[in-house]
Fold this protein.
Amino acid sequence: MTSPLPDRLERIAARLSDRAPVTRPCPEGFRESAVLMLLAERTDGVHVLLCERSDDDPRDAHKGQVSLPGGRRDPGDADILATALREAREEVGLDAARVRVLGRLDDYLTITRYHVVPFVAAIDGFDGLAPHSTEIAAVFPFPIDAMRDPARLRRVPWERLDRIEEVLFVEHDGHMVWGATARMLYHLTEITG
């Protein structure tokens, strides 16, 4: 993406560049991974592309759940950003030339023992992005502002890594966004205002 960013995405880029993400080494027993928050500005606000994972893969610990495009780092990946871009290409057909990486969020540890590095990127729109892997059943746009709406956001106490924390749930258009995906999206709204 070489053209100027739309106003709302420019503000997000500025907020991300004003802070250093909290990074940590991948703990023993965790799988190093990355996700990509693909943001597009639409008339009704900024949306992120989400995936509904397939129920068909018995090896997928997240089958049937809503996620961001992403996955485990492969030995051939040059760095963790390369992981996010490769996974997005494999899962939704993303051409990396269409995006402008805006920054990254804090590293996140999931209850399924993934060390996740979330990257934020701008894209001109979601046209042409669709499931390109049997891991993905569907893709859909999700309005970031849903994470700011207290009427839509549910918080449920949950034990995670030997402590109690709130798990976030947001329903949108028949999809339940929750867990690590909801937490990372909420964190983006906290940073970007």
